[in-house]
């Protein structure tokens, strides 16, 4: 099929590349000319394992191209995917301006039937609004008796995870397809099934439903995952107070198939470009219909507190004033295998530590450049704080002469460091682990003062 992707971010680029890999002819459009120029050189503007190889292969095979030309994009695809950002607006609702920009461009340039597929995460009712917006422009373009070209608006929210996006897209658990009521939209369901059939590996992964339900499914899924994380973080904090080790508790509850064992790891709170904004947007949806979502308010509140847990642990050990103290931070990206720093807990942590007077030596295996950009942005009004961040060359370089090491992101490279070398370079052998990477007993046997999230009761 001829497909157009609008938006070449984490979702749009991976979607476009994977659909090309399956043999479709894909044109990816973005308004960011620099991003498109990078992609045209077959370079990847984001870090996502496996993406570079797929881009190079598919561009060479002539199935994948990049452009900033919206009209060309509209002309190319029978299916037009919208995969642009839907960030939080000031009131917490999803900002749909990019979605409507693309919908407007499609309506302005289309001359034949188009299936418009919304992959961006959008609130319930956005598909209807896109349908109306496109119909309005088409009515202006075809005012006479001759009918305007037909179109369908489909909701197809994306569930891939950054860091394993290619595998998630190629082997999805489910593909949600939400259809409107018009005959064109019902027929578009068949087209979507055909497009996604190869990804099922012999199983039909497509779940068709009405469009509003599909839009809601995406938010409900993310809200559920965020809830599990905050639940587990609260249990871990309680475990520490009750002198219980959270690790066997995690294993014990995860063994129940009604609960399952994924997303049950306590840590420094969730971040990234989805959970925080989607939880807030769902809360706004509730407020708008007079149903404040109390559970989600608590989920967000627990998460905000969790981002400060490591600071609280340090304060307990070292007192509230960190002047003259030097700390190492391992991990800045909001999770491993990505360079995404959006809403990363490290950003809150860095500011808190600097405001208490600390000097920071930070290291991340891939997010250093992005971290530098984001921290400069966050602290643009505090050059005095920025001056106290040193970007280290390696994990050990970050730890050198530090009064404590804080582990923020669970990159593989941090899982088995040379502990003797680490202890030798630290000024004090204090490790505050926000990801519970090591066995507390072994760490103590190695001479570390080791603090965790929920495992501090282990003697
Ligand atoms: P992103 O910010 O990485 O990328 C969005 C891209 O859209 C940018 O490159 C931007 O330049 C481009 N863009 C903006 N306006 C445009 C326009 N008018 N025409 C063409 N391109 C335009 O965003 P993302 O992380 O890929 O997320 C996209 C959507 O998918 C969001 O709604 C997000 O909530 C959802 N989502 C994201 C993830 C994830 O892991 N990142 C997972 C599932 C769903």
TrEMBL record:
It catalyses: UDP-alpha-D-glucose + 2 NAD(+) + H2O = UDP-alpha-D-glucuronate + 2 NADH + 3 H(+). Residues 328-440 form the UDP-glucose/GDP-mannose dehydrogenase C-terminal domain. One of its GO terms (molecular function) is oxidoreductase activity. Keywords: NAD, Oxidoreductase. Its EC number is 1.1.1.22. Pfam families: UDPG_MGDP_dh, UDPG_MGDP_dh_C, UDPG_MGDP_dh_N. Pathway: Nucleotide-sugar biosynthesis; UDP-alpha-D-glucuronate biosynthesis; UDP-alpha-D-glucuronate from UDP-alpha-D-glucose: step 1/1. It comes from the Bacteria. Belongs to the UDP-glucose/GDP-mannose dehydrogenase family. NCBIfam families: NDP-sugDHase. This is UDP-glucose 6-dehydrogenase. It comes from Acidovorax facilis.
């Amino acid at each position: 099929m001829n497909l157009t992707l609008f938006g070449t971010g984490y979702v749009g680029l991976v979607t476009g590349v994977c659909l090309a890999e399956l043999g479709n002819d894909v044109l990816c459009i973005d308004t960011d000319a620099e991003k498109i120029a990078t992609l045209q050189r077959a370079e990847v503007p984001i870090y996502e394992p496996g993406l570079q190889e797929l881009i190079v292969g598919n561009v060479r095979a002539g199935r994948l191209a990049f452009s900033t030309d919206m009209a060309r994009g509209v002309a190319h695809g029978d299916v037009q995917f919208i995969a642009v950002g839907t960030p939080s607006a000031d009131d917490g609702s999803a900002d749909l301006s990019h979605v409507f920009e693309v919908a407007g461009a499609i309506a302005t340039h289309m001359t034949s039937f188009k299936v418009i597929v919304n992959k961006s995460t959008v609130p319930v009712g956005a598909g209807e609004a896109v349908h109306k917006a496109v119909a309005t422009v088409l009515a202006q373009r075809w005012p006479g008796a001759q009918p305007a070209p037909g179109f369908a608006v489909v909701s197809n929210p994306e569930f891939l995870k950054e860091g394993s996006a290619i595998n998630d897209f190629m082997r999805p658990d489910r593909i949600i397809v939400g259809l409107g009521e018009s005959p064109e939209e019902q027929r578009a369901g068949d087209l979507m099934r055909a497009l996604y059939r190869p990804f099922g590996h012999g199983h039909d992964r497509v779940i068709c439903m009405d469009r509003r339900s599909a839009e809601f499914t995406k938010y409900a899924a993310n809200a559920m995952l965020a809830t599990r994380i905050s639940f587990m973080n609260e249990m871990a904090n309680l475990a520490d107070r009750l002198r219980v080790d959270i690790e066997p508790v995690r294993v014990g509850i995860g063994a129940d198939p009604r609960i399952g064992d994924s997303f049950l790891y306590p840590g420094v709170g969730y971040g990234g470009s989805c959970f925080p904004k989607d939880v807030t947007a769902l809360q706004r949806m509730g407020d708008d219909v007079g149903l404040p979502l109390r559970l989600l308010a608590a989920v967000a509140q627990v998460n905000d507190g969790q981002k400060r847990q490591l600071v609280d642990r340090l304060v307990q050990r070292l007192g509230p004033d960190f002047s003259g103290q030097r700390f190492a931070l391992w991990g800045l990206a909001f999770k491993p295998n990505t360079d995404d720093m959006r809403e990363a807990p490290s950003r809150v942590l860095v500011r808190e530590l600097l405001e208490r007077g600390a000097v920071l030596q930070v290291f991340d295996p891939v997010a250093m450049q992005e971290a530098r950009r984001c921290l400069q942005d966050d602290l643009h009004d505090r050059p005095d704080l920025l001056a106290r961040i040193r970007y280290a060359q390696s994990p050990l370089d970050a730890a050198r002469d530090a009064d404590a090491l804080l582990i923020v992101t669970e990159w593989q490279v941090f899982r088995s460091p040379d502990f003797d070398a680490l202890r030798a370079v630290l000024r004090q052998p204090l490790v505050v682990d926000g990801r519970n990477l090591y066995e507390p007993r072994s760490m103590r046997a190695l001479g570390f003062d080791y603090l965790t999230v929920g495992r501090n009761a282990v003697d």
